Amino acid sequence: MADVDFALLRLAEKFITGANVHCVTTWIFCYKTSAPGSDWHSRYEQLLRDFVISRTATAAAREYANLVRNYSRDVRAESDRLNREISEYLPTRAAR
Question: What is the pTM assigned to this prediction?
Fold first, then answer.
């Protein structure tokens, strides 16, 4: 077990859900029990790395989307406020 990347395992475990629990725990088990330096060990390590990378990218994209959504909401609220303020200074059609 000297060549097991425990940081990788922690990251992979962080992304386990009810939908992927069986696959990911199997990959982790196979990675931990395969002989270090073997083809199987390398394959499962790469599989876990790809899994972690894809989940990290997805989480980052979601976080960015939330950030943009919140910014958009704030800009819209400020725009609405400015429109109300401007409309107070404009003459109404009835006054013409």
Answer: 0.71
